[in-house]
Design a protein that fits this description.
By secondary structure, the chain is of the alpha/beta class. The protein contains 6 helices and 9 strands. Helix content is 28%, strand content 28%. Strands 5-4-3-6-7-8-9 form a 7-stranded mixed sheet. It has a two-stranded antiparallel sheet with strand order 1-2. Bound molecules: S-adenosylmethionine.
Length: 216
Amino acid sequence: MDFETQRENMVETQIKRRGIKNPRVLSAMLKIPRHVFVPSNFQKLAYSDQPLPIGEGQTISQPYMVALMTEALDPQPEDKILEIGTGSGYQSAILAELCRELYTVERIPQLTIRAQNILHDLGYENVFFRTGDGSQGWSEFAPYDKIIVTAGAPQIPQPLIQQLKEGGRMVIPVGSRFTQELKLITKREEDVEIENICGCVFVPLWGKYAWEEREE
Ligand code: SAM
């Protein structure tokens, strides 16, 4: 089966059937070629219902999780969004389709470079990359309409709350090193409303406002 047909099946069976409805999210998931974001030896599994290794001990998230987080974030065409954990760049491409500007931070330089090359080849010009500790956000371009964190944090990093616009939304997995709860945060007058979405399993968010960095 060609990749396009596999992608259509993925959207139908893994995403729509599990309740994702936002038509903009569905059309971005139909458009973005997930197989170009995974190493060549995993391409035949690119549209299966699972996270996959992308090198450096990191993973590209399960397609359903990408769709669920994107729908919860509710990106709008005029939004400026901050993403923490670029990884393969797949979630970045989905967001780049749906917002005005995406600022994305990754701590592993090799992954930043790899994602930057893939997004460049796909023609995205609204994505800005940085290698560094995303638990500190990216203050230079703050405030952001939306923030998405794609690694598991022990708590919501304070700088990310500060860099979110009033009324802005943040989606972030919070919990232990091994399992987390996916949370939707809405900023209200220096306070936050917190809604639990579902249980999830992400690689750790390392950094000053997250898990303590160590030699891996
Ligand atoms: N959204 C990505 C995708 O579509 O491929 C998957 C992200 S992967 C599950 C989590 C990423 O967060 C890893 O690439 C990891 O290196 C990165 N990460 C962990 N701690 C970080 C930090 N403090 N700042 C930026 N990136 C971090």
